[in-house]
Amino acid sequence: MSDGLYISEIFSSIQGEGMLAGRRQIFVRLTECNLNCRYCDTDFAKLPRCRLESHPGSGTFVDLPQPVALHRITSLFNDWLSQLPGAHHSVSFTGGEPLLHAGVLAEWLPEIRKQLPVHLETNGTLHSKLRLVKQQVDYISMDMKLPSTAGLTDPLWDQHARFLQEAHGSNVSVKVVVGETTSGAEISRVCEIISSVDAAVPLFLQPLTLTDGSIGISAAQILRLQELASSRLPDVRVIPQMHKLLGAL
């Protein structure tokens, strides 16, 4: 068994994005990322301390020394689940990019799934790492990074296509962050990738949230993009970051 994981923070909140939006989850935010998206508001640096919510949903934190061991995580989950029976739907591993830690997660997830279903939030670029853990994951929320919003130097279409092919057969959904400059060509490319694997995979269009909390896309533009995607795929939904609208973590 591994010595542990470097974790940025552990907290309880409402899932604000994608397929499980509105569900309460325990969030385990892992450190490190292989991308540097322009809109990212997450500190995923590898730090000597992990921030742990002192009571689920309290918004107050204590520090844990790193790395955090599996027995500490399962003990914490048991405590929170006994404090709030039935409140939590699942545990969400997010980041950063959780699949950078796929080797450790492959050891951990069988034990964690005895307590709660596992939800993986990923940038959808590390298909070979997904292979190590996908049998122990109940939900996969895959981002596709659009050049217009992520601002990355090189497009990731090929990596995203390979990842979705690897995820096929799992409970996977796709999310894209869209802004005012997002083009129809980008949405068409997303639809092509999804259709080439399984057109029934749900697609979530997530309006870009700006640093001041405002929405970085007009209603007219989001409707145009939704119309285009819906002409290609049967399950297209528009969901803003609900947790930010609620003022939740």
What topology does this entry show?
Layout: E1 7-14, E2 24-30, E3 49-53, E4 61-65, H1 70-83, E5 90-94, H2 102-112, E6 118-122, H3 127-133, E7 139-143, H4 147-150, H5 157-167, E8 172-178, H6 184-197, E9 203-207, H7 219-230, E10 236-238, H8 242-246
Parallel strand pairs: 1-3, 2-5, 5-6, 6-7, 7-8, 8-9, 9-10
Antiparallel strand pairs: 1-2, 3-4
Helix pairs in contact: 2-3, 3-5, 5-6, 6-7
How would you summarize what this structure contains?
With 249 residues, this protein is an alpha/beta fold. The protein contains eight helices and ten strands. Strand 9, helix 7 (219-230) and strand 10 form a beta-alpha-beta unit.
How would you describe this structure to a colleague?
The chain has 249 residues and is an alpha/beta fold. It has one domain: Aldolase class I (TIM Barrel, Alpha-Beta Barrel). 31% of the residues lie in helices and 22% in strands. It contains eight helices and ten strands. The chain has a ten-stranded mixed sheet. Strand 8, helix 6 and strand 9 form a beta-alpha-beta unit. Helix 5 runs parallel beside helix 6. The protein is globular. The two termini are 31 Å apart. The mean pLDDT is 94.
